[in-house]
Design goal:
Elements lengths: L40 E6 L14 H8 L14 H4 L2 E6 L7 H17 L3 E6 L5 H8 L5 E6 L20 H7 L3 E11 L7 H9 L2 E4 H7 L1 H12 L3 E7 L21 H9 L5 E8 L10 H23 L4
Parallel strand pairs: 1-2, 1-3, 3-8, 4-5, 4-7, 5-6, 7-8
Helix pairs in contact: 1-10, 3-4, 4-5, 7-8, 9-10
């Protein structure tokens, strides 16, 4: 009899509104589980938003994303990819943060991902605010800097906030470049827009070779052309994918802390991920879903759908590499 342990629960077997929600109805495999060594792609929650500088709430994102993801089914509608058959996927649970202590929380997150990486598992993360990406990168880039494709309306490249606060959701990728976690020549940021304090973040990008694609260029060139350049920038080396839900126009994703008008629609939000096919993805995240501002639940469902698109690309990569 076939081993179906790593397959999600089907809506034909248990209604989607029933049962304990896990990411995409996958098995919960915590770090002490005997089958952890068999996991290829681990879905992880980081319920933490201590880096938020305006509207809080992303700490509740992973729980809402889990609930919304019960609507995800087994097969991609256009590619035919069945990710749960191409790779062993599991919900590895949440990193337990310290909501009163940013450095301690980052240490906890890095230690959790050290264990995940040490087990040979590629992580797909649900945040949390965008500062959560930094401690994840500290674990994944221990041996060499990574490239990064970053979907966002903001660069998150600021030096500091509030007279010297170095760790907020507006600074993670500045720190990641400074710490040697990212190769700036292999970093591209897509969808940037909105009013600005100044040009400090963009000046840092220009000085370090980070490619910025503003929303005007994104729309002028189209998804396929922009993403072809993004793939060329990161090349064949290991690459991190970071997806802030505020990349999407707030008409389609209002449930986030720092929305910016004039962004892509929900279909384009999926298209850009589909164009990641063929990359060497070392890990990915979907961050900044804030349930208190998501009264319809539509933002969380879009976030869960983006996570499924990411999972399909990552599972395809696993299948091509012929890993057991």
């Amino acid at each position: 009899m076939a081993d179906t342990f790593f397959h999600p629960v089907s809506g034909f077997d248990l209604p989607r509104f029933a049962g304990v929600p896990t990411f995409m109805r996958l098995p919960h495999v915590p770090q002490n589980h005997p089958r952890l060594p068999e996991v290829n792609i681990g879905l992880i929650g980081v319920p933490w938003d201590s880096g938020t500088t305006n509207r809080p709430g992303p700490r509740h994102g992973p729980r809402q994303l889990r609930d919304s993801s019960t609507m995800i089914r087994a097969q991609h509608p256009t590619s035919g990819m069945r990710p749960f058959e191409a790779a062993n996927c599991a919900d590895l649970g949440d990193v337990g943060p310290n909501p009163a202590d940013i450095p301690d929380s980052m240490t906890r997150i890095t230690e959790f991902y050290d264990a995940v990486s040490g087990a040979g598992i590629i992580p797909l993360t649900a945040g949390g605010d965008h500062l959560a990406s930094l401690p994840v990168l500290r674990a994944l880039a221990r041996t060499a800097p990574l490239g990064m494709i970053h979907f966002d309306s903001h660069t998150d490249l600021f030096h500091s906030y509030f007279n010297g606060t170095m760790y907020t959701h507006g600074t993670p990728f500045r720190r990641a470049v400074e710490e040697g976690l990212l190769d700036p020549g292999r970093v591209v940021q897509i969808g940037l827009r909105g009013t600005m304090y100044d040009t400090e973040d963009r000046d840092f990008a220009a000085a370090n070779g980070i490619r910025l694609i503003l929303i005007e260029e994104f729309f002028a060139r189209g998804v396929a052309d922009v993403m072809a350049e993004a793939r060329e920038i990161v090349g064949a080396g290991p690459t991190y994918v970071s997806y802030d839900i505020d990349f999407v126009d707030p008409t389609f994703a209002p449930g986030t802390g720092t929305p910016e008008v004039g962004g892509p629609n929900s279909f384009q939000a999926l298209q850009v991920v589909r164009e990641l096919e063929g990359l060497d993805i070392a890990g990915a995240d979907l961050v900044e879903v804030s349930p208190p501002f998501d009264t319809s639940g539509g933002t969380a469902f879009l976030g869960a759908s983006i996570m499924f698109e990411l999972l399909c690309v990552m599972a395809g990569q696993h299948a091509r590499e012929g890993k057991a």
